[in-house]
User: Which sequence fits this backbone?
């Protein structure tokens, strides 16, 4: 990894569902598991409530990566919201590819309320995977 | 829309937040936000003076919205929303910025932590800037409760609730109530007979006018929410009419099928038609469809021929019923950690290695040996018995990481019972530590050691194998530093407790969380020990974590009290953060109607209409609507866009 890559800190917006992933991130906190501060969490009711517009908007406002994390498939608090989210992943990835943004800048994970360590690992891995991609400028409104 | 007047309150949480986050700077940065007219930091925002300071600030500055930067909303969202209501503004204008669990506790660098706390707080401020004043929606309450699991936890909860006047539906998967407690011989530390204390409660449940017992039934689906759940319950066919059955036992005399008896943990056999145990509730036989030769008079039909009461009916079919209840208590209990996981203790290879429950059946007067301790292989009285504690517990590398809590006590009980049955026998107990916290527990263990003369060896067993007609047990005594070799006649494993299969199934059906070990997760480890994260669903007994009988009974009572309090209200309040349709934008495409998991949206005159009582506010509709015509109140698209911007600023 070049020095430039090491110094670069990707900005991540993390959409976390209230019932599983946000609770999982709380558990990471309670367990004092340290992880990079690149991801700023936005707690939403359900991963299924995330419109592709939100993800594009995040890239538009300068995010280098977007994480969407929900309950494990079958465990959705709202019965089937995460199925709706899962269906959108492919759509979003294709959409990003079409406009020339690396699809890997969007990531979906399944983190339950009991998986604090997993949430920390998801963030760690995402940050590490985003570093080689460098800053995202394609969809950024202000490219200065 | 007039500009909001938001107040921001940043909590130090003692040093929990303040150690990593410059709270004063967070408060200062927030005051620069357009909508913020007041900001402060304080050492304990949730304390009485802290909450009063918020109320005072709301009044002094005519605040119409509040952001509290503190711990997780799961802890104090309610506190601060109630507090806002006390100050005369809608609680739903209050937002929590989680800068403890999601920030201060997971980062060490002060600059990094402060920056992130500012982003999280700013994001909450932007959201609050567009929050509407909302009032809770009143919904009617169904004053009935469903209890899942008919062990001691379910029985106790049912009785407590029924005695308070609630109608109770007790659903049990097995053919009889009683659960594992029914299998125990005596209970520690008083050595009173388990069935003698449980049976009267079972009878009371079955006779209680407010309790409907549904044995041999399984909950398949649950929909709805607190106050108004709908449960789909499968009634498995028993092929015997309990009203007609005279429990004369004629049928089992003629049944040609022999299968292992689950109630006796395989120590004895039963027939395809059976009664789990003599005092089963309901007092009736059950025909095991899987074991039966074919439910067909041409194939066998012996039981039907011999039944004078004409209670047997091969034409019974599974039946599904839908029941409406206002609350649910989950009391699905535990299973023993599978012996097959412990190869080093000879499972499947070495005879006379038993688990704790099997030993209970050997000691029980109603058990296979009528209460005589005999080893299963040759029915001889075992003279040297080795008890191994922590079999599967406290072993994060290979088995369960947690302590199963009751094994120290029940092993002491086993050793004591064995010595009472076989006074000239020797009982050896291998242990790691003795955990005997509980009223009269330590004294009981001491009695087992000193008066009953059980030999306690601090150390683990490395291996055991068959050697002639003995079991060679190799272990260490870490107190003397010596290896120990015992020629045992019988070995009893104190297997770990794990959540029952029924617990895993119930969690799936009810969509309630489980912890890392698979036990049902409580809403708060200290302050909400009997509540699940889903409102209206409560937890009791070993399904929530390893527990002994007194604790289980206490927890069941606590769960019952919570249900009684909940259902004593005439109406419940439903969160008003539900979907709202912007009629001018709606084209009536019905995408939201299909996406809604609660069937809360319908089309009226070509526009979507939301049933606010059914809506749970998940936002599935928002993400589906192409024209942003439907959104969740106080989590609108504009709010999310602004939060995204705040996170990236």
Assistant:
């Amino acid at each position: 990894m070049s020095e430039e890559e090491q110094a670069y800190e990707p900005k991540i917006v993390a959409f976390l569902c209230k019932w599983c992933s946000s609770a999982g991130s709380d558990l990471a906190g309670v367990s004092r598991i340290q992880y990079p501060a690149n991801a700023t969490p936005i707690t939403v009711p359900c991963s299924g409530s995330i419109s592709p517009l939100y993800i594009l908007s995040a890239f538009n406002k300068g995010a280098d990566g977007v994480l969407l994390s929900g309950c494990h498939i079958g465990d959705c608090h709202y019965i089937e919201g995460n199925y709706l989210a899962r269906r959108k992943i492919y759509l979003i990835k294709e959409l990003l590819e079409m406009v020339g943004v690396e699809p890997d800048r969007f990531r979906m994970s399944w983190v339950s309320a009991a998986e604090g360590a997993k949430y920390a690992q998801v963030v760690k891995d995402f940050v590490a995977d985003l570093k080689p991609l460098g800053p995202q400028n394609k969809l950024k409104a202000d490219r200065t | 829309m007039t500009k909001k007047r938001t107040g921001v309150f940043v909590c130090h949480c003692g040093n929990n937040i303040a150690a990593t986050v410059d709270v004063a700077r967070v408060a200062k940065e927030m005051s620069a936000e357009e909508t913020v007219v007041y900001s402060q930091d304080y050492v304990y925002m949730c304390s009485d003076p802290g909450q009063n300071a918020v109320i005072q600030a709301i009044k002094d500055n005519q605040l119409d919205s509040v952001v509290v930067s503190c711990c997780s909303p799961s802890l104090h969202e309610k506190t601060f929303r109630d507090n806002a209501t006390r100050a005369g503004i809608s609680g739903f204008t209050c937002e929590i910025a989680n800068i403890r669990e999601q920030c201060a506790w997971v980062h060490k660098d002060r600059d990094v932590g402060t920056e992130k706390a500012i982003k999280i707080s700013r994001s909450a401020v932007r959201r609050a800037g567009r929050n509407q004043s909302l009032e809770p929606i009143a919904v009617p309450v169904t004053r009935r409760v469903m209890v899942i699991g008919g062990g001691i936890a379910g029985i106790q909860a049912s009785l407590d609730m029924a005695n308070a006047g609630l109608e109770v539906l007790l659903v049990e998967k097995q053919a009889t109530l009683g659960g594992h407690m029914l299998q125990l011989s005596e209970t520690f530390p008083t050595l009173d007979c388990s069935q003698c204390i449980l049976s009267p409660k079972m009878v009371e449940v079955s006779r209680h006018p407010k309790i409907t017992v549904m044995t041999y039934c399984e909950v398949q689906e649950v929909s709805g929410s607190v106050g108004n759940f709908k449960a789909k319950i499968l009634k498995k066919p028993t092929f015997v009419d309990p009203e007609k059955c005279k429990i004369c036992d004629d049928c089992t005399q003629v049944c040609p099928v022999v299968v292992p008896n689950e109630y006796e943990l395989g120590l004895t056999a039963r027939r395809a038609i059976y009664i789990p145990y003599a005092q089963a509730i309901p007092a009736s036989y059950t025909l095991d469809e899987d074991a039966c030769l074919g439910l067909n008079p041409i194939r066998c039909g012996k039981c039907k021929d011999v039944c004078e009461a004409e209670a047997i009916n091969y034409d019974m079919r599974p039946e599904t019923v839908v029941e409406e209840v206002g609350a649910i208590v989950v009391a699905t209990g535990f299973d023993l950690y599978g012996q097959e996981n412990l190869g080093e203790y000879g499972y499947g290879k070495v005879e006379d290695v038993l688990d704790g429950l099997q030993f209970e059946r050997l000691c029980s007067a109603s058990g296979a040996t009528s209460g005589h301790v005999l080893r299963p292989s040759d029915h001889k009285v075992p003279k040297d018995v080795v008890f191994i504690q922590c079999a599967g517990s406290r072993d994060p590398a290979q088995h369960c990481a947690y302590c199963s809590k009751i094994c120290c006590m029940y092993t002491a009980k086993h050793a004591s019972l064995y010595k009472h049955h076989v006074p000239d026998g020797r009982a050896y107990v291998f242990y790691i530590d003795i955990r005997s916290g509980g009223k009269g527990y330590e004294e009981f263990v001491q009695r087992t050691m000193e008066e009953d003369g059980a030999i306690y060896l601090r150390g683990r067993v490395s291996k055991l194998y068959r050697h002639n007609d003995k079991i060679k047990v190799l272990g260490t005594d870490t107190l003397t530093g010596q290896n120990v070799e015992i020629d045992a006649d019988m070995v009893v494993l104190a297997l770990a407790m794990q959540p029952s299969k029924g617990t895993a199934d119930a969690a799936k059906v009810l969509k309630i969380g489980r912890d890392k070990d698979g036990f049902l997760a409580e809403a708060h480890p200290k302050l909400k020990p009997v509540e699940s994260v889903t409102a209206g669903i409560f937890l009791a007994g070993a399904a929530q974590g390893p527990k002994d009988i007194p604790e289980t009974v206490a927890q069941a009572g606590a769960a019952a009290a919570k249900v009684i309090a909940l259902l004593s209200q005439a109406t419940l309040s439903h969160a008003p953060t539900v979907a709202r349709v912007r009629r001018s934008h709606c084209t009536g495409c019905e995408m939201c109607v299909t996406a809604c998991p609660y069937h809360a949206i319908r089309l009226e005159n070509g526009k979507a209409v939301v049933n606010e009582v059914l809506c749970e506010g998940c936002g599935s509709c928002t993400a589906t609507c192409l024209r942003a015509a439907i959104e969740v109140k106080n989590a609108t698209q504009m709010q999310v866009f602004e939060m995204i911007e705040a996170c990236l600023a």
Notes: Helices of chain A lie at 3-7, 21-30, 52-60, 81-99, 116-130. The longest strand of chain A covers residues 12-17.
